[in-house]
Amino acid sequence: MGERVAVVWDESFLGYDLGGDHPLNPIRLDLTIRLATELGVLDGIELITPRSATDAEIELVHDPSYLAAVQAAPYSGWDVGHGLGTADNPVFDRMHEASALVAGGSLVAAERIASGAADRAINIGGGLHHAMTSHAAGFCVYNDCSIAIAWLLENGFERIAYLDVDVHHGDGVQAAFYGDPRVLTISVHQHPMTLWPGTGYPRELGTGGAEGTSVNLALPPGTKDSGWLRAFNAVVPAALAEFRPQILVTQCGADTHREDPLADLSLTVDGHRAIYHRLRELAQLHAGGKWLALGGGGYSLFRVVPRSWTHLLATVIDRDLDPDTTIPAGWMARTAPIAPNTALPTTLSDGGDPAFEPWDGTAETQLDNAIVATRRAIFPLIGLDPDDPRD
């Protein structure tokens, strides 16, 4: 698979820096690439340099007035509107250029798949799934996920599945394609009653002929590896099988982890590894092997994100790593001075157990109630029996 994989990366991605103590610190990207490199995951892989998305490409998703506001924001003072200049989305120097580069990185990855040069492509710098048509939100200025999907629709793809495993609802992508039956959006996230952005209920189904193409699986706080995977497998594979996408686009936020400071799910890095392996399998089964993987959230900068996304890179490249793999001494030496009060992990495992019992059709727990709610909302619209665990 190695020659059929495109890995998009350049240190210029680190320019998407919201500054100060902002949770979305680009050090997480740098440490991921360093860890993957030291473990040999990227050996022999030519890293693809991103390009900046053009204004026209950004406007596939975003209003021209919003694009103009982003371009002008660093010179306009603090009150610029469009969700810019807030605590979540502070204005920063070269904001448009940095954001356009992230979007361009995801476009380059999409282009590699569309051209046939690769079956899989990954941009860990991408996954900015909250940005809306005319405003920034949730640390996201331009929605690279939606831009890549819109570009694919204009370049020969007619059925695209977007699968979001970030702890936060993939609201920006859902909004972009809520009335487009060509795009299936699936989001598995912490329940919106307990976490920002407060959307992603099972009743959000799509509209205007696209009913049944918006799937939301909202999980209770505290959900662990086994519960997450139980719920995922009770809903997602069947929805993908019925939709028959030509490509699977995934947003792979690592903020479902039990140590993430901004959310309340309880997964481990071992659970993340199992999720990534399942995404790869589903791309093979239902999307002809075509898989565009993007990064996303994740705010445990030193202990979690580098390990999780090293597993993601290894999974995309088919160089799976044993969870008990020791963290290299060089990475530890690099990281320790910038994380002086952090107990750094010593292996790629948290000792988690991602084994799970498949859903059996009952609703005896809060998690099972979440499964049933989503199946009963979606499955009748796509011709499946919501109460039959065989569907």
Helical content stands at: 25-40%
Largest sheet: 8 strands, parallel
Radius of gyration computed on alpha carbons? 20 Å
- Helical segment count: 11
Q: Could you give the count of β-strands?
A: 8
Defining key terms:
11 helices, Arginase, Chain A, 391 residues, alpha/beta
If you had to describe this structure to a student in words, what would you say it looks like?
It comes from Allokutzneria albata. The chain is α/β, with parallel strands linked by helices. It has one domain: Arginase, Chain A (3-Layer(aba) Sandwich), CATH 3.40.800. The protein is 34% helix and 10% strand. α8 links the parallel β7 and β8. The longest helix has 21 residues. The model has no long low-confidence stretch (mean pLDDT 97).
In short:
It is built from 11 helices and 8 strands.
Helix-strand blueprint:
Blueprint: E1 5-8, H1 27-38, E2 47-48, H2 55-58, H3 64-72, H4 95-115, E3 120-123, H5 144-154, E4 160-164, H6 171-176, E5 183-190, E6 214-219, H7 225-243, E7 247-251, H8 269-286, E8 291-294, H9 305-317, H10 329-335, H11 366-378
Parallel strand pairs: 1-2, 1-3, 3-8, 4-5, 4-7, 5-6, 7-8
Helix pairs in contact: 1-9, 4-5, 7-8, 7-11, 8-9
